[in-house]
């Protein structure tokens, strides 16, 4: 594992299972673990694996957050402020997401579309907005205009299914459209936040064996997340506003 600390503070949404949980596991186990790993999930009481990690790693802070519920942002922001203080928040990883099962054209429903957009596209934007003062504060701690995850970054976990160019199979309307929207949001954020030296990028974690990805996916969460962490270490100006795979490979919009 790398000896350099990725960042002083990282907030990860959707941390009770899948990629979010694996991110917390690998970051807390790193030789030079971040000072604060803020792991959010909807039901901390039932997040047993996450609670075990927090018991053995003092830098893991579990915080309740339902990304789709704007009211839950208020206590979250206050809690983050308590944890990070004047140093600000270095990295926000918008990982929480949903995907309805049956989404062929004859099966798709209004609610599939609105719920998926709500969680996958609108929530990452509004959470970034809510935490922006703290991310700006972290960015201002370093001199110069360089971009790096270590300084300040918003990482939107997207999907190759959100690539319009790569869509060869159709279907999956809610998920594809919500991730394409998240990619468009990422692009706008990168322009709006460049002057504050905040790096913004979207990452595709690969097709991973999680509850969402299913058992037949080729990648394990361990492989995907170790690639993601490695890529986060290497992010710089050229990745700003881009769309990359977990292993750093550039993807088409």
TrEMBL record:
The family this protein is said to belong to: Belongs to the short-chain dehydrogenases/reductases (SDR) family.
SUPFAM superfamilies reported in the protein's UniProt record: NAD(P)-binding Rossmann-fold domains
Record bears the keyword Ribonucleoprotein: no
GO cellular component labels: cytoplasm
Any one GO molecular function term: carbonyl reductase (NADPH) activity
PANTHER family reported in the protein's UniProt record: NADB-LER2, SHORT-CHAIN DEHYDROGENASE/REDUCTASE
Domain of life: Eukaryota
Name the UniProt record assigns to this protein: C-factor
Record keyword NADP present: yes
């Amino acid at each position: 594992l790398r000896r350099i600390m990725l960042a002083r503070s990282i907030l990860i949404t959707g941390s009770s299972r899948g990629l979010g949980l694996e991110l917390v596991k690998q970051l807390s186990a790193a030789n030079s673990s971040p000072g604060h790993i803020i792991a959010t999930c909807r039901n901390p009481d039932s997040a047993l694996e996450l609670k075990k990690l927090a018991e053995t790693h003092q830098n893991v802070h579990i915080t309740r957050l339902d990304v789709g519920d704007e009211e839950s942002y208020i206590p979250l922001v206050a809690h983050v402020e308590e944890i990070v203080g004047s140093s600000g928040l270095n990295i926000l990883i918008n990982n929480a997401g949903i995907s309805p099962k049956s989404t062929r054209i004859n099966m798709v429903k209004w609610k599939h579309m609105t719920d998926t957009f709500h969680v996958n596209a609108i929530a990452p934007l509004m959470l970034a907005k809510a935490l922006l003062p703290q991310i700006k504060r972290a960015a201002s701690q370093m001199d110069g205009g360089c971009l790096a995850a270590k300084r300040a970054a918003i990482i939107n976990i997207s999907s190759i299914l959100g690539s319009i160019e790569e869509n060869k199979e159709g279907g999956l309307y809610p998920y594809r459209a919500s991730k394409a929207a998240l990619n468009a949001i990422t692009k706008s954020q990168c322009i709006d936040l460049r002057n504050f030296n905040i790096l913004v990028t979207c990452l595709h974690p690969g097709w991973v064996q999680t509850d969402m990805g299913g058992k037949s996916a080729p990648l394990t969460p361990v492989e995907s997340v170790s690639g993601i962490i490695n890529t986060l270490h290497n992010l710089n100006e050229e990745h700003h506003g881009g769309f990359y795979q977990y292993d750093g490979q550039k993807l088409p919009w």
